[in-house]
Automatic annotation (TrEMBL):
GO terms for cellular component: endoplasmic reticulum membrane; plasma membrane. The gene is SLC27A6. This is Long-chain-fatty-acid--CoA ligase. It comes from Podarcis muralis (Wall lizard). GO terms for molecular function: long-chain fatty acid transmembrane transporter activity; long-chain fatty acid-CoA ligase activity. Pfam families: AMP-binding (PF00501).
């Protein structure tokens, strides 16, 4: 039936009907709602203009805060496991996954766990160490640095990372300041050891990562590791009684005087290990570590971050700008660390053909967290 409208005509009737409906009080927006909407739109554009990373930063901060709160709650309950205990769990859950790649040699989680067990067994049977003793580590980047670190930690020892670039008086000061019962030296650091050997305290037992040594009063490690058991040491030795107990000593660079030891607790190791995860790294990532392991960036964020994720790390003996992008292509690197001037050096390098850097997912993590 025809609708009632004034003046007739279908189109005019429709317009009249819509005008009546839109002018209804129920469909009119209040002035405050319009003002709020305009304000929100303005804030959105201002945020995009002046704070383009606001939401990404907020997401990161909330993620870190949630992790920190969870760790603190677990600490109060006494149920937090250390990074070393997490590594042991990963070695059981994913034993054949590569944990460490060094000079084209692959070391799986199980292999690293078992070799560190050999280190722990060796020193346990020697009877030279007790829980809580300090052991100084003078080694450059190599797999046995990690094996020695983990093995000594499994005995409940505090490990002091010595800067392998310091010499003479500064090195002797570092050793004396942490009062170690034992000093473990890498095979490539024998020249440095020979320089300081006459001045070392007689009560410090010295071990070198070699099969033989001509230096007096120096024991060798590698020959004894070949016959040592890879069975786990008693678990009570490495269980942390308090997460605030010291786990590592990491020395400052000494630019304002002699190097000083920063005490790194188990809790700080856990917080540092969450860095890669907080920045969005995943267990499928391959992390490239070129920084020295005696530094917190490589040891805590790098190695510790790989443990937190259950990921793989590629370790290089030292940083090389000319080989960096070649290694990224060779090992399918997805995450790298940087500190200081590394990025400036890398940007000056020619692009490695046929690699396209824009297609390489890279997370740059600046890491001056502890020293």
């Amino acid at each position: 039936s025809p609708l009632p409208w004034p003046g007739g005509g279908g189109r005019r009737a429709l317009v009249w009907s819509l005008e009546k409906r839109l002018s209804s009080p129920r469909l009119m927006f209040p002035s405050w709602a319009t003002a709020v909407a305009a304000g929100l739109v303005s804030l959105h554009f201002l945020q995009k203009l002046f704070f383009p990373y606001f939401w990404a930063d907020l997401k990161y901060l909330l993620k870190v805060a949630r992790y920190g709160l969870r760790v603190e709650v677990y600490r109060l309950r006494g149920s937090v496991s250390t990074a070393l205990e997490r590594f042991g769990a990963l070695a059981r859950r994913q034993p054949d996954k590569p944990f460490l790649i060094y000079e084209e040699q692959v070391h799986t989680y199980r292999q690293v766990d078992r070799r560190s067990n050999r280190v722990a067994r060796l020193f346990l049977e020697e009877g030279a160490l007790a829980r809580g003793d300090t052991v100084a580590l003078l080694m450059s980047n190599e797999p046995d640095f990690i094996h020695a670190w983990f093995g000594l930690a499994k005995l409940g020892c505090v490990v002091a990372f010595l800067n392998c670039n310091v010499r003479a008086r500064s090195l002797l000061h570092c050793i004396a300041s942490c009062a170690p019962k034992m000093l473990v030296v890498g095979a490539d650091m024998l020249g440095t050891l020979e320089e300081i050997l006459p001045s070392l305290q007689e009560d410090i037992r010295i071990w070198v990562m070699a099969k033989e040594s001509t230096l007096p009063h120096v024991d060798t490690v590698l020959d004894k590791l070949e016959v040592a058991s890879d069975d786990p040491v008693p678990a009570n030795l490495c269980v942390a009684k308090n997460l605030k107990d010291p786990h590592l000593y990491i020395f400052t660079s000494g630019t304002t005087g002699l190097p000083k030891a920063a005490i790194i607790s188990h809790l700080q190791v856990l917080k540092g290990a969450a860095g890669l995860w907080a920045f969005g790294a995943t267990p499928d990532d391959i992390i490239y570590i070129t920084l020295p392991l005696y530094h917190s960036a490589a040891a805590l964020l790098g190695i510790g971050g790989c443990i937190e994720l259950g990921a793989t790390c590629v370790l290089r003996k030292k940083f090389s700008a000319s080989q960096f992008w070649t290694d990224c292509k060779k090992y399918n690197i997805t995450v790298i660390q940087y500190i200081g001037e590394l990025c400036r050096y890398l940007c000056k390098q020619p692009v490695v053909s046929p690699i396209k850097i824009i297609h390489l997912y890279v997370s740059f993590i600046y890491s001056p967290l502890f020293i």
